[in-house]
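Moderator note: this is an archived Q&A kept for reference. The question asked for a predicted structure of one protein chain; the sequence and the answer are reproduced below.
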Amino acid sequence: ADDQPPLRLAIEAQHRGQPYYRFATVGADSAAPLRDQWGNSPYLFHIDDLPTSELTDLRVGFDLMGAGEVWIDDVQVFDLYFRDNERDEMMKMIALADLHLGKGQISQCERMLEGYWARYLGEYVTDAFVAELAKTATPAPAAKPPVEPPPEAASLRDRMWNWVPKWR
């Protein structure tokens, strides 16, 4: 921890025949100092402008930009990752939609479920991602009956209705 070599977390590719390179600096001269202990606080490198087409030769890299030694372990790459604040906002949206539903305010509930996040989830989130997310969710109290899964061809709106917690 006392010796902070400059390190870049990087992604490199070819986009339309041109080099594509994005990086985040950790270690020396950065807001993310390197730690000398393995732990559960990963370094997250979020890329918002990764091209979705015509991208080839994609590589994840670690560029040591000066003298030093860095050990790297447990590298993970996600095509979709929600930060804690984004997950919190989605949970608030679901809770608010359920509140509207409980009060019989169907149009307001529907408006919530047809908003930005619902459209985003419908376009980018797969059923496999939802199933994996459900594994990490807090289990419902045992007193509630189990919710039946939606049919295979259920729309996003129908699937989101099943995500809404029932407070009855």
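Archived answer notes: Strands lie at 6-15, 18-27, 55-64.
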